[in-house]
Design brief:
The protein has 69 residues and is mainly beta. The protein has no helices and five strands. A hairpin with a 4-residue loop joins β2 (22-27) and β3.
Length: 69
Amino acid sequence: MTVRAEYNNGEYVGLLQRDAAGFLLQCDDGTRYRLELLRTPIDAVEKRVVVTGRIIDSTILEIEGVRLA
């Protein structure tokens, strides 16, 4: 059985990037998160965004929403 630490929802600001494995958020403080999301935010790639979601691992964000910053 796998147990994952789950944290409270929050907002994260940074540059939305895409690679072969999916989407990443490069935060303003230098932190990078792999994004788990249901919708594909194609229009926001390589733009500054505000992501709403929760950290489910030290490098993974489970996303509820993405909007342009």
